[in-house]
Amino acid sequence: MDVPGTVLVDGIATLVTNDPALGRGRLGEVCDAALVIEGERVVWAGPSASAPAADVRIDADGRCVVPGFVDSHSHVVFAGDRSREFAARMSGTPYSAGGIRTTVAATRAASDTELLAGARRLVREAAAQGTTTLEVKSGYGLTVEDERRCLEVAARVTDEVTFLGAHVVAPEYADDPEGYVDLVTGPMLDACAPYARWVDVFCERGAFDEAASRRVLTAGMERGLLPRVHGNQLGEGPGVRLAVELGAASVDHCTYLSAEDVDALAQAARRPEATVATLLPGVDFSTRQPYPNARALIDAGALVALASDCNPGSCFTSSLAFCVAVAVRDMGMTPDEAVWAATMGGAMALRRTDVGHLAPGARADLTLLEAPNHLYLAYRPGVPQVAAVWKDGALIAGRP
């Protein structure tokens, strides 16, 4: 029986549902498939031959449908340009966290209107490449007012907003890092918490040590924010262990891990609210650092997500398709694992059950690829393959 307001997408060569109950393997892959959308939700998915009737039909014409990418780590609220820093790095200058201060100066000088326009441009750019959920951090203001207004801008482009006042020590506090932590955990957090869901800290040499990171995270948690961590990017350190101890939703970068770190993440994957290892291959591509050992994490039983870390300094890409290709080529991931990590893995890193999959009840966030299957995301790197993108059942990019 027809259901008013329903949309049938059929003629799908390969449908990735990320629900093993619906299809083959971890991706729940269905061949010769269809799905039905009603309003903002998926209400049916399965073989085309069994599809119910609907009010509107969209023909996928033998192409692949995957869940919209869930990018759980980005810094798209900023001003300025660091292309010359990138060029210097490609000429042999090593990457360090200090370059963040260049963006801080430009961001402080920008108007709210300029920051919002830049963030919206990057959100549209990401959406055109298949990203339907995007986490956005502050961290380029580093004063109470500048962090607050960056978060206010972020909240206008996404529901997944993260307070990262503890990105680096503000230049005014270069000689008083403890004083800056006092500011972050006091007046800054008071001003910023109403705009954020998450609290984050850069637990790394050149940024914040374990004690300072613990103070930041616990202060945020006391104000109702959920923790996540930048950790183990520039060397082995306490970031992973701290994230697991505090029950953070994710620890991001994980470039340098000890055997104990890998084991801790594997153990944390078994908890009802897991700590996800979010890997950011675009950063390591752009900084010429070693890539994280995704294979070791997956084989140990850890949960792995892929995210863009779109930012003007260490990784200025918004393309999760690019990250999938790099993860397969250089991080030991299979194409299936990488696609899962960029969709369901990202959703788990944001503790979301409504995105990252296309089972009935999920948000109708989906991407139609100009390809017969999801393998093409790694098989044809650098080639535009997104035909159309829907978010909450509405077409937001491209056309079928």
Number of strands: 16
Estimate the mean pLDDT confidence. Answer: 96
Number of separate helices:
13
The low-confidence runs, each spanning 5 or more residues with pLDDT under 50, are none
Largest sheet, if any? 9 strands, parallel
Fraction in beta strands: 15-25%
Radius of gyration: 21 Å
Q: How far apart lie the N and C ends?
A: 25 Å
How would you spell out the order of helices and strands?
EEEEEHHHEHEHEHEEHEHEHHEHHEHEE
Main structural class: alpha/beta
Q: What is the multimeric organization of the chains shown? A: single chain
Helix content percent band: 25-40%
Shape: globular
Q: In a few lines, what is going on in this structure?
A:
This protein is α/β, with parallel strands linked by helices and 400 residues long. It has 13 helices and 16 strands.
Q: What descriptors fit this protein?
A:
single chain; 400 residues; alpha/beta; nine-stranded parallel β-sheet; seven-stranded mixed β-sheet; 16 strands
Care to describe what's here?
It is a single chain. This protein has 400 residues and is an alpha/beta fold. Helices cover 34% and strands 24% of the residues. The protein contains 13 helices and 16 strands. The chain has helices at 83-90, 100-109, 112-128, 144-155, 177-192, 210-222, 239-245, 259-268, 281-287, 294-300, 320-330, 335-349, 376-379, and strands spanning 6-16, 29-38, 41-47, 56-67, 69-71, 131-137, 160-166, 198-203, 226-227, 229-231, 250-253, 276-279, 304-306, 366-369, 386-391, 394-398. Strands 5, 6, 7, 8, 9, 10, 11, 12 and 13 form a 9-stranded parallel β-sheet that branches. The longest helix is centred in the N-terminal third of the chain and has 17 residues, at 112-128.
